[in-house]
Amino acid sequence: MALATFEGSQTALRRLAMVLCATSLTVAASFMFATVVQADGFDWLDVVRITLMAIAAFWLAWGGCIAFFGILFPDESHPRSGPVPEGRTAVLLPIYNEATGPVFARLAAIMRSVGQLKAADQFDFFVLSDTTRLEVAEKERQAYEALLAQEGAGGRLFYRRREKNIGRKAGNIADFVTTSGGAYEYMLVLDADSLMEGETILEMVRRMEADPRLGLLQSLPRIIGLDTLFGRLLQFATSLYGPYFARGLAAVQGGEGSFWGHNALIRTRAFAASCGMAPLQGEPPFGGHILSHDTIEAALLARDGWTVRLDPDLTGSYEEAPANMVDYAKRDRRWCQGNLQHGRVLVAPRFRFWSRLAILQGIFAYLASPIWFLFLIASLAAPLAAPAPVYFDGHSPFPVFPHPETATALALLFGLVALLILPKLLLAIRALADGSTAEFGGPLRLLVSFLLETVLTSMLAPLHMMFTCRSVVQVLTGADSGWPAAERDDGSLSFATSLSATWWIVVTGVAGILFSNYFVPELFYWLLPVAVPMALAPVLIWSTASVSLGKATARIGLFAVPADQKPVAVAAEMHNVLNAAATEPAPALVSEAIA
Amino acid sequence: MTDHETPGPDASGEPCGHEPLFPEIRTVLKRPDLSDAVLRDVLAENRLTLCAGLDLNGFLSGAGTADTRARVIRSMVVPPPQHGLKMPAHDLSPPLSVRFGPAVAWCRNVLEALIAPGKRRTAPVAAHIRNR
């Protein structure tokens, strides 16, 4: 009890420090910006710009503070040993029209990894299919029967398919809970692209058994298995910076942590009692079933007094990610709708303050882009709307020139860039200092990778902003103009696909350059870092989706990650299963039904 | 609705002749919850993956080593444990009257507590007493 109170007050202090830190940075940035914009007079457009800048700066400062906290607070890793757990665990794999082969290969790899544990009998596996395409459903059934026979997993491996995917993934999990949930103390929720090592799963169960108030334990999934340049960038960033960001997040959120929807262990009875969600009144996009259910489920558990915790030391947890920017934007479009829908539940009864903040953070992850875009437009329009300078105010015979604020503007720009880059730079320096560069290809390769990653992500950032703006507009207007279909399994894109996905970004970028050149030449060079990548969007997207470029960086050791040096066992097993399925015929002789 | 219907009791309830296998199946699968009716359905509806040297009749008549028989049994598709939990649906966007209900009740209590001391505590004097 005393320990819980101490931890609670410690978390409260950290939160207070973080809010103060982010607020101070925001106030400083807003003050500097106000100083800059009032140099040519003060009008209503300046108020809009300062407000937009303040909101966007707070968002940046918040992210920067999370990273700083991750560097400040030590790694709280626990030894991985303990008794064999008593409670049974259901490993849940919800799927929806996925590629059957890889999904079942991942499951086979996880089952084999769990099968090596002493406590293997405590785990059952459920494939919860919401697949709507009948041909995919038939493949799933065949793959299930083959895996069952191969692993001898009768009574431990189950497959069921819902014909109507009511409530999507949340409804799928709820269906399991209401039919079989009572037979299991815990359930491990996976995604179709999840991979987890048996030891990690066992450790999660041990931690949950050791803390009877722990309702949800989130592991830290690491991105693996991508070959494109974009994919390798993502892998590098999540491997080098991800653990520190997660540590910072865990330090401030305490027992009201996050649920990322997968690779997490949940106490089944707590989930059943707390996490049922009635559909929201009204029509989509803001009504109907709650789409991004994970954040809300975490808030519901915390509301009922359950601890929701992110343990960043829980490695051995993996996921795949979109291999190119277009697929990334498609996924973001789905998440955007779900997160904006959370505006309806932000003021739900009895939610904890930090849960509301986490929901607000999720909403702002998508609103930040339109805010930056509006800020850019307002900044381009401001010089046109500004009053003409008054050189003779009538009090002095000499002309009075406006005070140039270039130094302040540069300081502000430097500050904002520092908020984005400094945490990453500190993390790279830390890796260089503590000698952990071997996992990232050595000091020189790490440094070059860091610089290249910073340059490339800075160039991709305006495209991300534009895609997110489009998603927000589509959600708010209920429109969806569609996406080009995925062409290749390896994640690469043709130039035509890249162009068809980004032509409107090119038009916006070129229009911005022309506008500033003719009407606000004083902002021309300031706009280029944003407008040039937009004008080059198809080239950037096509080249970062290239597998050959990705493999070339791998050959010379750039964007190296620990998984390159020491292959992930469970991922290697998954590839073995896939290769075996491709080369070997089905080994089993299947008899006729016993009628 | 799922493809795996909840296996209810066999409509006919008649023995199928494979009943001697049932305890063995329950033991191998560590599923004592599987009833005779469920196992009858399992054997009727599903296929068995047989090993070399053990045909269907042999399996049904109890032939084969324990290990070989266990392998066949472990290839059976059996239903998951049927033990559902109730999952009440929480309304996250209730009407304003519900949302502010507790606040309104609290205000009412506070008001009553404030007004109560100001109220006249003595009972009004009846007219016939006052006129005495």
Automatic annotation (TrEMBL), chain A:
UniProt KW keywords: Cell inner membrane, Cell membrane, Glycosyltransferase, Membrane, Transferase, Transmembrane, Transmembrane helix
Species lineage: Bacteria, Pseudomonadati, Pseudomonadota, Alphaproteobacteria, Hyphomicrobiales
SUPFAM superfamilies reported for this sequence: Nucleotide-diphospho-sugar transferases (SSF53448)
Pfam family, one: Glyco_trans_2_3
The species this protein was found in: Roseibium aggregatum
Taxonomy, superkingdom: Bacteria
UniProt GO MF annotations: hexosyltransferase activity
Family listed: Belongs to the glycosyltransferase 2 family. OpgH subfamily.
Membrane topology summary: Multi-pass membrane protein
Coiled-coil boundaries: none
Regions that span the bilayer: 49-73, 363-386, 406-429, 450-473, 493-516, 523-542
Main location as per UniProt: membrane
Name assigned to this protein: Glucans biosynthesis glucosyltransferase H
Localization, UniProt: Cell inner membrane
UniProtKB/TrEMBL annotation, chain B:
Superkingdom field: Bacteria
Protein known as: Uncharacterized protein
Protein species of origin: Roseibium aggregatum
